[in-house]
Design a protein that fits this description.
Number of strands: 15
Strand content: 15-25%
Largest sheet: 4 strands, antiparallel
Shape: flat
Oligomer: single chain
Radius of gyration: 33 Å
Helix content: 55-70%
Number of helices: 18
Distance between the termini: 28 Å
């Protein structure tokens, strides 16, 4: 490969590394703290924030329109002029010559459409920052602070609670299903709490490992983990729902306040409340699709549910959800459904409506079937909601470790200082001992670190203290490769070779020595990364990445710099050490 091709390849590698590093640069260097806090909150919190701020902006713009409809939108609202102009063009209408507040509002069919446009801007800005975080280098608990918790699920107690309803063959399946349900419930609760990218995973047969980076209060987390989801059945008020939705369409910005409460409680009956109807989206997250007004009084508590399954309707083959009630629940349900034939009954879980079905007849015997135009996925989701109530698995916090944010900050400073100080001493030594050739080693080391961070960012890996230790070790190994090459070149120069021949022979003769040492180190790092856990794995991963990047910079980048001096700058001698006669 000639010099031009190698130079183009190097530029391409550096450009790709910059693309990988850009999210980390944007997240840690360009994103304000307030935006970081929003981006790191749960999806539900992001949505609530965007809705509340959009509603507030609409109210402010309407107030400005009342004061002076011929004025222009300025400051934070100036972007609406372009969006309004685009909307006019999309509708095939003439764009007003003077884009006043009145003209901007006239570009949208109704207030809800206008509010959705503003909400989308808030949402896109936060999700853009969140995307930067998702694609950046993460900081582990030892750097960012936070806590890790190991929770034990008492599956044997859950089996005993089922009594004689389970056969010996059904117990393994029951335990597996119960554990999966606990994992899903914990993940949902912790995400709703608005925590920073929590890790919730199964550990062994009956334990759950939870890792929560960032500042976290131990008492609040324990309450969250040990708390149980609230599931109940409530009567839906369909007339009040229709009236509310009509009101909401006319006044979307002034219906709810910033914390989701009705600004005018009189728009619904006093014995009711408005809840969102939620379903799972393509990412498995709860997504609000509609509103429903339900009675505040609970018809039936979820504790009366004994089992839940997904079946098929014998007439049309549509999925339906069947569940069984205990004796007390069956009696309550029979009396209620007999008195409310034709009404609608909602299943509410953690303040969210998961299903709303019509009562066609009195349901007796405790065997209930929820029918409707369910898809298979919707039926399975409803089943999981019902399982939250009857799969009662006692949880116990076995261990808990809290790492303060101040410790994380000190660790980061210590790690950065160790890398900078170690790199500085090595580079000073290389410049003194190998003179001008030491510059090649300096450039190679800087590019080595640049490429290592880029690879960490590309694979969304987590940076920990052990990872930093692996990087520091890599620095020493990378210099070792340069030393081998430089010493070989010095030997060839002592033998009377020319600059070009000495450099070529030096790299050729050192190649396999460098490759042998780095390949063996890479193999060891791969085994450590595969078999090790925690700090060992972090150290091994950064070491493996460093081995690859250091070989590239020592053999490819350094060689290119030597050849550039020889062929472009026409250097005849090599400044590579003391006492070398050329």
């Amino acid at each position: 490969m000639n010099k031009r091709s190698r130079f183009v390849l190097l530029l391409a590698v550096l450009a790709i590394c910059f693309v990988f590093l850009w999210p980390s640069i944007c997240w840690y260097g360009r994103t304000p703290k307030e935006m970081k806090a929003l981006a790191l909150s749960s999806t539900e919190n992001i949505k609530s924030y965007a809705e509340a701020n959009a509603a507030e902006d609409v109210r402010e713009i309407k107030m400005l329109a009342k004061e002076d409809p011929t004025a222009k939108l300025e400051g934070d609202f100036a972007w609406l002029e372009k969006d309004a102009a685009k909307n006019y063009k999309a509708l095939g209408e003439k764009v007003p010559a003077e884009m006043t507040i009145q003209a901007v509002l006239g570009a949208y069919d109704n207030e809800l459409e206008f509010m959705n446009v503003i909400q989308a801007k808030y949402r896109d800005e936060i999700l853009k920052a969140k995307k930067y975080y998702d694609n950046s280098v993460k900081l582990g608990l030892d750097l960012s602070g936070g806590m890790n918790v190991i929770v034990r699920a008492d599956l044997d107690a859950a089996v005993e609670a089922q009594g004689d309803s389970l056969s010996a063959d059904e117990i393994p399946y029951f335990k597996e299903e119960a554990m999966a349900n606990v994992l899903e419930n914990l993940t949902s609760r912790i995400d709703k709490f608005g925590l920073t990218s929590p890790i919730v995973r199964k550990q062994g047969e009956d334990r759950i490992y939870i890792e929560i980076p960032g500042a976290a209060q131990a008492d609040a987390i324990n309450t969250l983990i040990m708390g149980k989801g609230i599931l109940n059945f409530r009567l839906a008020d369909m007339d009040a729902t229709a009236a509310f939705k009509e009101y909401y369409m006319r006044n979307p910005a002034s219906t709810f306040n910033a914390i989701g409460q009705l600004m005018d409680p009189s728009i619904i009956p006093a014995d009711t409340e408005v809840l969102g109807i939620y379903t799972k989206d393509a990412y498995g997250l709860d997504e609000r699709v509609d509103w429903l007004v339900v009675k505040k009084d609970v018809v039936l508590d979820g504790k009366h549910i004994q089992s839940a399954t997904v079946t098929r309707d014998e007439f049309n083959g549509q999925p339906q959800v069947a569940f069984n009630l205990d004796l007390e629940g069956a009696q309550i349900f029979a009396e209620f459904t007999g008195a409310h034939v034709g009404d609608y009954l909602a299943i509410v879980s953690d303040g969210k409506v998961k299903s709303n079905a019509r009562i066609d007849s009195a349901i007796t015997g405790g065997n209930v079937s929820l029918t409707g135009s369910f898809t298979e996925d919707e039926a399975l989701n409803i089943k999981k909601v019902l399982q939250t109530a009857w799969l009662n698995v006692p949880l116990e916090v076995e261990s808990q470790q809290v790492i303060g944010a101040s410790l994380g900050e000190k660790s980061i400073k210590a790690g950065v200082f160790a890398i900078a100080f170690g790199l500085g001493l090595i580079l000073v030594f290389m410049l003194i001992f190998y003179k001008a050739s030491g510059i090649n080693a300096v450039v190679a080391q800087i590019l080595n670190l640049y490429m290592m961070f880029a690879i960490l960012s590309a694979f969304n890996l987590t940076l920990t203290l052990s990872s930093i230790a692996g990087m520091i070790l890599t620095i020493g190994m990378a210099v070792d490769a340069n030393v081998l090459v430089f010493e070989r070149i010095k030997e060839e120069l002592r033998a009377g070779k020319s600059r070009k021949a000495a450099i070529a022979m030096g790299f050729d003769n050192a190649f396999w020595a460098i490759m042998d040492s780095n390949i063996t180190t890479f193999i060891a790092a791969i085994f450590l990364a595969s078999l090790g856990t925690g700090a060992i794995q972090g150290f091994a991963v950064s070491l493996a990445i460093g081995v690859v990047s250091s070989v590239f910079t020592a053999l490819f980048v350094s060689r290119l710099m030597f050849d550039f001096d020889t062929d472009v700058l026409h250097s005849k001698k090599v400044s590579i050490g003391w006492g070398i006669k050329q």
